[in-house]
Every structure is written in structure tokens, then in C-alpha cells.
Design goal:
The chain is an all-alpha fold. It has 3 domains: about 140 residues, no CATH class; about 60 residues, no CATH class; about 70 residues, no CATH class. Helices cover about 60% and strands about 0% of the residues. Helix 1 runs parallel beside helix 3 and helix 8 runs antiparallel to helix 9. The longest helix is centred in the C-terminal third of the chain and has 29 residues. The protein is flat. This is Membrane protein.
């Protein structure tokens, strides 16, 4: 019987010892992300100060010629080093060795994903609206790691007894067809703009059916292809998006006010203004746009 790492949170549960590297990786990832965000905010807040910096105060890393080294560079190096270490340990390494390498991997992954928006846009958009992609990527990574720790497996039907015990062609074909159909459902859900439903649905398959059947988000590719010529459906998608996003926006505005020292529930006008900025209908594809060019 394999030993387990018992974490007493008031629940009758335990984490298998074999998942210790994943747990340590997740903890290192979360801590690194929060520490990095805190340091970067501190540097930005004191960027215009003329006071001489003390040795312990955080500052930007620069090379010769004023070159600013983003922390994504350090993250890439750590991810590559730890990845090579884990591949090497895969031959005869034990859990302690994997745990040490996974901690470095978690730190490196956090530094990389914290600047995911920079990689995506090939521009330093860290503090702009596009910079939210970094935070979204981090939350997705944390959610996926959490599901793995809890024992959920993506495309878990590959682990069923049919695949392991029944080696007939018919059984293997059935499993492969199920896998392809599940992946297609996940693609449909992602095209509808439901990233969280698509990712979690890879672990909990019924969510994919729910996400594929329900309306698309109004800004998603699916809405652009299917709803731009169906105004009623686009209107329903917009109304549904506003209804779903309203509590999220309210919580976000309340948190911003709380951090600034004045916690108060945001008024409807401010919430509606934020919703107007965030929610929009997808533009029609080029082949459906009216040609306004004058004929000579």
C-alpha cells in the first residue's frame, strides 16, 4: 500500500505520496506568482522616486546598455533546467528528486505565465488591459494543477478497464472514437469562448456537453460565425453575458475599493459602465461585411 501525505483540512482525505511533486510544484507556483506581483508593483510604485535605493529594495534587472531583463527570461531558464532534470530523473529517480525539480519548475512556470501577455502580444502590455491574459493564464494553470492533485485525469476514459483488458479492435476503436468526439466537443466549447468550461470539461466530461449546447459568448469566434446574421441570438448572448458578468464585475470593483482603503459596494452606474467596456458583440466576418466602396 502506497503511503499518503495526510493534510488535515477537516476533510477525510489524503494526497498520495506520488503526487507530492505536483503539490510542491503548485505551492511554489502560487507563492512565486504572488511574490512576483508584489515586487513588480513595488518597483512600479517607486519608479519615479529620486531617493537612493537600499540594497534590500527590489529593482529591475538590467544588463549593459540599459537592457531590461524581464522575469520571463529567468522563468524560461528555470523551466528548461528543471524539465531536463525531470526527464533525466525519469530513468531511476525517486520522489524526493522529482519534488526538488518540480519546485524549480513551479517557480519557472509562474515567472513565465506572469508575463504570458508579453509573449502573446510580443509587446510589454503588463499593466494594460491586454495584460489580463497573464492573470487568466495563471488561474487556468492553478485550476488544472488542482484538478490533477484531486485525482482527475484529462481524457480519463483511456484509463478504463476496456482499454487495458480488452485488446480487440472493436474495443480500441470505440475508445479512440470516444476520445475524438470528446476533443471535438472541447474545441466547440473553446470556440464559444468558454475557456474554463472547456478546460475543466476535459476532466469532467459532462461539462463539455453543457458548454457545447448553451449559447456562445458574444465576442467569441462561434458568435462571429453564427450570430452576426441572427440578431435575436446575438442579443440573447449579450444579455446573458451581462447577467453572468455582473456579479464578477461587482466583486472586482469592490475588491479594488477595498485595496484602496475604501471598501464599498459599487453602484449600478459604475458596474454598467464597466460592463459596457468589457462586453461587446463579435464583428461580422469580412465576407459578410457590406462593401461601401463606390463603383467608378
Amino acid at each position: 500500500m502506497r503511503p499518503t501525505l495526510d493534510l488535515d483540512f477537516g476533510l477525510p482525505t489524503g494526497i498520495p505520496y506520488s503526487r507530492l511533486p505536483l503539490v510542491c510544484c503548485l505551492v511554489a507556483f502560487i507563492l512565486t506568482f504572488f511574490v512576483t506581483r508584489t515586487i513588480v508593483r513595488y518597483i512600479r510604485r517607486h519608479a519615479g522616486s529620486d531617493k537612493p535605493r537600499k540594497w534590500w529594495q527590489p529593482r529591475n534587472i538590467s544588463a549593459g546598455g540599459g537592457l531590461h531583463i524581464h522575469h520571463v527570461v529567468i522563468g524560461v531558464i528555470l523551466v528548461m533546467v528543471s524539465g531536463v532534470a525531470m526527464v533525466t530523473l525519469a530513468v531511476d529517480g525517486g520522489v524526493p528528486e522529482f519534488t526538488a525539480a518540480s519546485i524549480l519548475f513551479g517557480i519557472g512556470a509562474a515567472l513565465v505565465l506572469d508575463e504570458f501577455a508579453l509573449i502573446l502580444h510580443l509587446s510589454d502590455v503588463y499593466w494594460s488591459e491586454d495584460g489580463r491574459a497573464s492573470v487568466d493564464a495563471v488561474f487556468v494553470a492553478v485550476a488544472v494543477a488542482g484538478l490533477l492533485i484531486m485525482g482527475f485525469n484529462p481524457l480519463s476514459f483511456f484509463d478504463i478497464g476496456i482499454w487495458q483488458n480488452d485488446h480487440s479492435v472493436g474495443a480500441r476503436v470505440a475508445v479512440v472514437v470516444s476520445a475524438v468526439l470528446t476533443l471535438l466537443l472541447a474545441v466547440v466549447v473553446l470556440l464559444k469562448g468558454k475557456v474554463w468550461t472547456g478546460l475543466v470539461g476535459m476532466f469532467i466530461t459532462p461539462l463539455l456537453f453543457v458548454g457545447a449546447i448553451r449559447l456562445s459568448r458574444p465576442h467569441a469566434p462561434w458568435a462571429r460565425w453564427r450570430y452576426t446574421t441572427r440578431p435575436r441570438k446575438m442579443h440573447r448572448a449579450l444579455e446573458r453575458e451581462r447577467w453572468l458578468r455582473r456579479p464578477v464585475v461587482q466583486a472586482k470593483l469592490w475588491l479594488q475599493d477595498a485595496i484602496s482603503g475604501m471598501p464599498k459596494f459599487p453602484d449600478d452606474a459604475k458596474v454598467n459602465e464597466q460592463l459596457d467596456r468589457e462586453i461587446h458583440a463579435a464583428p461580422a466576418p469580412p465576407d459578410r461585411e457590406p462593401d461601401n466602396r463606390k463603383v467608378a
